[in-house]
User: Which sequence fits this backbone?
């Protein structure tokens, strides 16, 4: 799952650095992801993984890193 | 057509009283009003108080008409965040026959939109928007950045409502700071406190609150949550005609959103940050009428002096 997330991060998060240089728990915000880019990433994750983030997950901390995104997607896919 | 949002009974009653007193003048569209002389004196007085409060910063003065090049609205991504509030200007471009058909339909108040084409203009949704491309076109910022007083022009939001405090066209008194991140953030803090002091001088029960913009849709909920978590938007709220206090001023830290869109650079080539503050002049005037009554002559003398209202 993390590789697929990384692919979408590379396409949509508009980071200042190459996502392959970041650890799973590295902050995407510190790597340059803006609020608007976060929205694009959120929408791409929804179509890529065929899920819909509930309102309770529409917050910055969920999209903080590859690891937090994977945790949120795992939770949604189990539900 | 945007859905009309009725006011609460208290808001509708306040609006009726303002119209009865000719402080506001009714048009056929909710949220679009003329202003009577006494209302206008108060509104202008509030704007002048803001001018005096900011004079020490010696801001550069800029004034723009209430229309914006459509290209600029597109550049800053307004249609992503607020597609429901934007107003675009369309105009006729067709043949004589089409002009005649359009006229016939207009006479019957039928739909004549098919003869209209999009122009290069939109209605200005925020008074600071023309400032960013103007500053960007000058090249790198001078050391220390710039402060711009963008005046108090009309802005448009398409949200017809029965609440007199939610107008479709109103005056937004805006000041903009563009510079290094820490300087911009510090400037916003100073103005936040200054605004509360200014409104309390008018005996308004003003409070400060962390806020978010009315972004559109699910993406908008994400943007709003993000804006709130990062405390990028502050508002000063005042009770007008219930049930909740109404925002009368806002302090917005855009980080590098506008600087990235237009390529605004600091003297050393790094990307600038921007912030703006906006006072909703009609809302402050309405709060004053709510607080002190509809008879301006009977307002407390200190409030009248602060607003430099003409002698009775």
Assistant:
């Amino acid at each position: 799952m993390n590789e697929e997330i990384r692919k979408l991060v590379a396409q949509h998060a508009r980071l200042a650095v190459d996502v392959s240089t970041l650890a799973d728990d590295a902050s995407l915000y510190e790597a340059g992801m803006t609020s608007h880019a976060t929205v694009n990433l959120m929408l791409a994750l929804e179509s890529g993984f065929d899920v819909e983030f509930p309102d309770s997950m529409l917050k910055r901390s969920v999209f903080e890193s590859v690891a937090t995104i994977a945790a949120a997607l795992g939770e949604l896919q189990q539900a | 057509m945007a859905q009309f949002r009725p006011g609460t009974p208290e808001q509708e009653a306040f609006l009726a009283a303002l119209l009865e007193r000719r402080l506001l003048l009714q048009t056929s569209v909710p949220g679009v009003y003329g202003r009577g002389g006494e209302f206008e004196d108060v509104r202008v007085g509030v704007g002048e108080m803001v001018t005096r409060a900011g004079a020490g910063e010696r801001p550069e003065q800029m004034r723009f008409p209430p229309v914006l090049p459509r290209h600029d609205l597109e550049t800053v991504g307004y249609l992503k965040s607020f597609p429901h509030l934007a107003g675009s200007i369309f105009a006729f471009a067709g043949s004589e026959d089409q002009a005649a058909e359009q006229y016939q339909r207009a006479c019957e108040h039928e739909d004549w939109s098919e003869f209209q084409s999009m122009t290069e203009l939109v209605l200005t949704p925020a008074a600071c928007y023309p400032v960013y491309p103007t500053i960007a076109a000058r090249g790198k910022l001078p050391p220390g950045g710039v402060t711009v007083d963008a005046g108090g022009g009309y802005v448009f939001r398409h949200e017809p409502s029965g609440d007199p405090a939610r107008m479709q066209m109103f005056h937004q008194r805006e000041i903009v700071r563009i510079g290094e991140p820490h300087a911009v953030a510090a400037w916003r803090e100073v103005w936040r406190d200054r605004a509360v002091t200014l409104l309390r001088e008018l005996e308004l029960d003003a409070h400060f609150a962390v806020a978010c913009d009315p972004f559109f849709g699910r993406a908008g909920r994400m943007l709003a949550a993000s804006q709130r978590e990062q405390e990028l938007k502050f508002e000063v709220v005042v009770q007008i005609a219930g049930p909740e206090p109404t925002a009368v001023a806002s302090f917005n830290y855009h980080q590098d959103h506008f600087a990235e869109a237009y390529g605004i650079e600091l003297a050393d080539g790094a990307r600038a940050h921007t912030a703006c503050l906006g006072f909703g002049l009609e809302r402050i005037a309405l709060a004053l009428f709510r607080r002190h009554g509809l008879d301006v002559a009977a307002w407390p003398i200190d409030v009248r002096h602060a607003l430099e209202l003409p002698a009775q």
About this structure: The mean pLDDT of chain A is 92. The CA atoms of residues 15 and 32 of chain A lie 5 Å apart. DSSP finds three helices and no strands in chain A.
